[in-house]
Specification:
A hairpin with a 2-residue loop joins strand 3 and strand 4. The strands form two sheets. Strands 1-2 form a two-stranded antiparallel sheet. The protein has a two-stranded antiparallel sheet with strand order 3-4. By secondary structure, it is mainly β. The longest helix has 4 residues. The chain contains three helices and four strands. It is 10% helix and 16% strand.
């Protein structure tokens, strides 16, 4: 693990053991993508997205962790984005769809935008 000085994991012996642990903190830049165990494959349609299992992107199941659920990977190819009822062009992380119109202004994109009704009116 001396090669990865900023890598903090529970079991350092698993770094570079030949088995990809495709989850944080192992499959991160700090840990050398599990010491090289996790291939970084390009994803068609997302030029800056590199993941171990490219076929997981846009497969209909949200992988809510790095590197899949990131902006460069299109939030898992859209699998981790949810539409908001009443706002057909408003797409937010799937676990935050209830934030729109909840009485609290989430003053950042994508919430406080015209597509999301300025956080469902919370930011007006």
């Amino acid at each position: 693990q001396l090669l990865y000085r900023t890598c903090v994991v529970d079991d350092p012996d698993r770094i570079g053991d030949g088995i990809c642990l495709d989850r944080p903190p192992y499959n991160t830049p700090d840990c050398g993508f599990d010491g090289g165990d996790c291939d970084q494959n390009p994803v068609e349609g997302y030029p800056d997205c590199f993941v171990h299992h490219a076929f997981w992107i846009s497969d209909g199941n949200c992988k809510d962790h790095y590197p899949y659920n990131t902006k460069v990977c299109g939030f898992d190819g859209g699998d981790c984005m949810g539409s908001v009822q009443g706002y057909p062009n408003c797409f937010v992380p799937i676990h935050t769809t209830n934030w729109v119109g909840d009485g609290h202004c989430d003053n950042s994109p994508p919430y406080n935008t015209s597509d999301c009704g300025f956080d469902g009116g919370d930011c007006l």
